[in-house]
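Lecture notes, structural biology module. Today: joint structure prediction for complexes of two components.
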Amino acid sequence: MAADRDRPLSPHLQVYRLPLNAITSITHRITGIALALGAVLLVAMLVAAADGSQAYRVAYDLAASWAGRVILLAFTLALYYHLCAGVRHLFWDAGYGYGLDAARRGSWAIIVAAIALTVSTWALALTVNGS
Amino acid sequence: MSLRTPLAAARGLGSAKEGVDHWWKQRLTAIALVPLLLWLGFSVALMGTADYYTVVDWLAHPVNAGLMVLVLAVGFWHGVLGLQEVIEDYVATEWKKITLIIAIQFAAVVLALAGIFAVLRISLGA
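The predicted structure, tokenised, for the full assembly:
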């Protein structure tokens, strides 16, 4: 029996290539969880800073390390992604941006916007810090 | 035809018994976080690897201290609402679900207070 190609298939996650909208959707959730973990680190940095220069030295050494810088970069990327995808959710709530084409364009828009915001943020911060 | 009684329909609280409260507060905190997170993203890039005196000087400024307090308060609130949704979706066992949600709510309050208290200590120069 020939397979009817137009039939909708139920996604079987191990073999199913997720469409872009599904990827951006689950990424919104994953970045949300990541930001909650990042918030714990943010509080740790603030508490260390309030505790004094000795405590902050430990936090500083961790943040300025190779792994620390990767985490800082990942935190800002997750932050901007969740921000952009969240704004898209607000547009959806207001009734805009539905339909396959609009959703696909929106998905690319939030990916591009999140990367652009991350790059420009670090470029600006490095410029300010460098001067 | 609705099987709901007219009183239940008028109350509009639905099966969750709280109406759109969770949904609405998640959106409200989301809107508040749009400008706050733009500031936080830049601040993390600016201050993430700065030395002690630079960070304390920066955080002592009333604008930065105020915004950081707002980020912590609104951010943890939004985070609790979001993580609750994730847990409700993936944790089926009732007691595990409720325990996790309560633990996250308690942890968020402790963390938010610790962060806010730290900011105030620096800002007020204690």
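Point to remember: The interface with chain A takes residues 27, 30-31, 33-34, 37-38, 40-42, 44-46, 48-53, 55-56, 59, 68, 72, 75-76, 79, 82-83, 86, 111-112, 114-115, 117-119, 121-122 of chain B (CB under 8 Å).
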